[in-house]
Amino acid sequence: MPQGRHKVPFSTKQKKQQLQAKRDKKRGIASGSDRHRNADSDDDDGEGSRDHGRAAGKRAIHEQPRKKGGSQSGTYDPNRYRLQFYRESKEEVQRKKRLASKEIQSASEETLEVDFEDVFVPGSELDMPKRPGWDYGMSKEKIDAQENRYFTEYLSAVESKFASEELSFFELNLETWRQLWRVLEMSDIVFVVIDIRFTALLMSPVLYDYITKDLGKDIVVVLNKIDLVPPSVTVAWKYYFNEKYPLVNVVCFTSFPGSHAAKQTTTKSVQKQGRLKLRMAAEGASIILEVCQRIINDKVDLSEWKQKIKDELEDVTDNANEPLQGKVSISKFDTGYEEYERFKDGMLTIGFIGQPNVGKSSLLNALVGKKVVSVSKTPGHTKHFQTIFLTKNVRLCDCPGLVFPSKVPKSLQVLAGSYPIANLQEPYSAVRFLGEHLDLPRILHIRHPDEEGRVPTMLPWSPLDICEAWAEKRGFKTSKAARNDTYRAANHLLRMALDGQIGRAHV
Residues 164-181: pLDDT tens digits? Predict the structure, then answer.
């Protein structure tokens, strides 16, 4: 009988390290033999000699496990387009956690006033990275090396000019920026999609100048999700863009046609409107068609697109499962290097760009009238751009959401959906921002954790108090000690704010 291998002792400590390594891999945290494991390992920067600012390194979001072996192991990289941001230092995270127990002070409405120039600082090192010049005499390897060198120098300039506390989260993955460059180059008209609730934080003046001046292309700003704000806000922003950016065409849009702009939509009512969302938003599509016709000046035949919208407007069955007239095809486009020719072969190419969670994919689905692009509330869900042929001569390009460098407060970025809530190391600063501008105890109908009896008291509220009270009301408990799970409560509150259930058009 062959001798079996002796069992290798496996201690409890080793088992904990193995489980921690698996958790780190899911979170996109690099592991190594020199890494110190402790209870706050998620806050560790992974490099003991680096403790401050950007020296803490990058944090990869949504990292996927690599396949071992197989024919694709040498060529396919599932993490090529993953989100990458600067990691907050351990000290900064711990400082924010200590502030979570401090009293919330109400802020005035003036603190919400933001100027585009102050947020994006045009003319500084924060200007968006632009693709270096190239020509057909350069090899692909040389172009790639040039872009890598340029992007590295760009990040170094930003790091040397701005402190970590000043900067927002912004995209550090060159592959994602390359997707944006390709879409801008191949598009005849560029649609910049913006969540109207956070307009001042999502529209970069540098992007406007790059599209209109450097590339010489037409730009359309789509103020999306207008059903989540009062009509007066929509009118005010449209007037502002017409005055501030004269070359911009402004379009207001919602993926929920038929809903009143000021209606306080709940989660259940949104679910009931699911069938409407999968149908073509014909009214909004008509406005977009008119803008495109005005720009191209009959250089491309858009009659088929016009007929499709007309058929949708005449359709009274409102059956979401009914196939639409015409064929919609999806294909992956070559992201290589090609010379741009406007309206090439009689084709109109429309590029959709914007920051994460502004509703680009939902807008495309609403334009087409069926689900052609996967939609998620998680930033970074769209990994690479793809093309959707709306008609035989109208091509739509969906670009991945990309966070531009700016000085937007990180807590406000979380509320705007630019950073994944599930990957937050510390969610309480974002809850504090909500509490400074909204009366959360009144909105949520919660009682202070230290309140005794049924008589309401005027006790001061901290972010932790709000989260603990919400966890008590919702029944969020930790698995072992059955204490109120404040972290889960904070995440739940932030998701409600992102969905528009809290603070609709107030932040």
Answer: 888 888 999 999 999 999
